[in-house]
Amino acid sequence: MSNDTWTVAGRTFTSRLIVGTGKYKDFAQNAAAVAASGAEIVTVAVRRVNVSDPKAPMLTDFIDPKKITYLPNTAGCFDADSAIRTLRLAREAGGWDLVKLEVLGEAKTLYPNMVETIKACEVLAKDGFKPMVYCTDDPIAAKQLEDAGAVAIMPLGAPIGSGLGIQNRVTIRLIVEGASVPVLVDAGVGTASDAAVAMELGCDGVLMNTAIAEAKDPILMAHAMKLSVEAGRAAYLAGRMGLRKYADPSSPLAGLI
Amino acid sequence: MTDMLSITVNGEPRRVAHGSSVADLVEALGIPLTKVAVERNLEIVPRSTLADVMLAESDTLEIVHFVGGG
């Protein structure tokens, strides 16, 4: 297990947990949660600088982009063009080509718009980006994304911020079996056991934000998520026992008095 | 003719002196140049050219940086 790493777009990581940086009380709590999670990648958003308060603390003052890989996202983008524009700005702000593409279909469910997502993915890949792509749990769309240049497939396990857990084990597993790039569950995890479920399905990693940020103790939950991702990965590698309909005694029947 | 230009920065109107570069504007706002990206009229201004690109009347600028997100 100590040399169990995963590689995306030629970059190798040990931690299989990617964490978001939204919704925290403050930057200090956010940084402490990232440290407790053991994550080597964090997602970040691209937004306007507050011109009226330019001295306000910045995320980069608390989470060092030289130590933690920043994965700029396109959260809030509802069409391909705005997602592409956002990531081009992100690349200029930090020089990153590894990015998280998400093109949303509607505000109520934050469900992905796959037509726009695939369109954006093609343009970004041709422009030298390495898009890790938030997507529906559709195995066919996942293959189309790969063809469009996605370096990782990131289906939702349940709607963003819902904490409902992995609602779609069958389709997540189908995507894992069919993919030749890493698959990460992005969205839906609510507590530690959900992350373990995702890993037991054979996913390469899990991405989460709200499950940690909205826990009563985010730093302790970050620690729990670290353990559960490791546990789920180990269980997947170990290979679970088969299911039986009825009991099978663990103690030998021979020699019974 | 006035010696000031009317421009829009992050959605808000602003006036700057003729002959100001994009870098002059960002620095005048007190924003660290190394932590932001700048878009002028929907085109990215590469960091290496921020001091060379001169502002013009009615320019629309977006100055962005990284914030917390999921």
Give keywords.
heterodimer, A: 257 residues, alpha/beta, 5-stranded parallel β-sheet, 3-stranded parallel β-sheet, 9 helices, 10 strands, 37% helix, globular, B: 70 residues, mainly beta, 5-stranded mixed β-sheet, 1 helix, 5 strands
Describe this structure in words.
The complex is a heterodimer of chains A (257) and B (70). By secondary structure, chain A is α/β, with parallel strands linked by helices. Chain A contains 9 helices and 10 strands. In chain A, strands 5-4-3-10-9 form a 5-stranded parallel sheet. Chain A has a 3-stranded parallel sheet with strand order 6-7-8, with helices on one face. A two-stranded antiparallel sheet of chain A has the order 1-2. In chain A, strand 7, helix 5 and strand 8 (152-155) form a beta-alpha-beta unit. The radius of gyration of chain A is 19 Å and the shape is globular. The model of chain A has no long low-confidence stretch (mean pLDDT 95). By secondary structure, chain B is mainly beta. Chain B has 1 helix and 5 strands; from the N terminus they run ββαβββ. Chain B has one helix at residues 22-28; strands at residues 4-9, 12-17, 37-40, 43-45, 60-68. A 5-stranded mixed sheet of chain B has the order 2-1-5-3-4, with helices on one face. In chain B, a hairpin with a 2-residue loop joins strand 3 and strand 4 (43-45). The model of chain B has no long low-confidence stretch (mean pLDDT 92).
